[in-house]
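Supplementary Methods, section 5.1.

A reviewer requested that the exact input to the structure prediction be made available. We therefore reproduce it here, unchanged from the version used in the analyses.
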Amino acid sequence: MSTTKKIAGAALAAALGVTTLSACGDSDDKSAGTSDKTVTLVSHDSFNVTDTVLKEFEQQSGYTVKVLKSGDAGAALNQEILTKGSPRGDVFFGVDNTLLSRALDNGIFTAYEAKGLDAVKPEYVLDKEHRVTPIDSGDICVNYDKAYFADKKIAPPQTLDDLIKPEYKNLLVTENAATSSPGLGFLLASVGKYGEDGWKDYWSKLKANGVEVVDGWEQAYNERFSGSAGGKKAKGDRPLVVSYASSPPVEVLYGEPQPAEAPTGVSTSTCFRQIEFAGLLKGAKNEEGGKALLDFLVSKKFQEDMPLQMFVNPVTKDAALPELFTKHGAVVEKPENVAPETIAKNREQWVKAWTSLVVK
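The structure derived from this sequence is encoded token-by-token as follows.
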């Protein structure tokens, strides 16, 4: 979830795309990775792991992990492409299926089949050459304010088609597809649902139905959305927002006081699935350490720690979700998907057409 691990404060940030972590040592140390006992993970800002889990890996492997955070997913990937062959670290984490083809086409990774990859659900293994390893998944979905719809005695929308109905006019806020990961994901959900010939017509109808577009997730979720803790404080008046299926558990976890039930719900037939990957960087100074780190990222220990650290879902079959997720999270059975190569071929023109249609 490259841009949105951000819900109630910094922790919410983890859930949807913006976290903080400085593993062992200075995460800004650009010389990291020069020691054969140091392995450097280059990441977007959302990576997080429990200290005890990371230290256990370090003790067992003999490596010290340094984390070099590099902004959002797109910016972090750009830096690795620019330093191709002479990378800033050993492993890169955070390229998702919307950017995957770009990373692979630029040849920044060395193929490595991680130990434990056989436990990863096959649908997440998008690169059969194993240049990247699936690490987590998350669903970009419309969230709704339960109290608003209960008060109005209106059923919350469940599908993309519902959002263009008159009863939901002027209720939805979404992020700009040109500047926001969830905004792009929501655009791709419409492409997956209506096809390359139908998504523009859908957005024309959505615009006519009063959709509001803001620059990013923070503004949409924590300012304009009436159902979030931040939105309530900001007096947000939009009861529908594009966020994540993991947003309701975060509202529970960081609620003050903690509610018995999530105040927000998820429209589960509006979703686009993001999958995040990690890969061994070509030219890594510590290739063996990088391989060990990739093995760790798909281990049961890390996979089970990850949901409450980054508010994403594990990709391995044997990893159990925490009760917070099973009780308050939404299960998305059939998310929309678009093949990474199709995204790579069309992303720029889709975003340009979307901008012209919806924003200008």
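The beta strands are 38-43, 64-69, 91-96, 109-110, 133-145, 172-175, 212-214, 240-244, 264-281, 313-314. These observations are discussed further in the main text.
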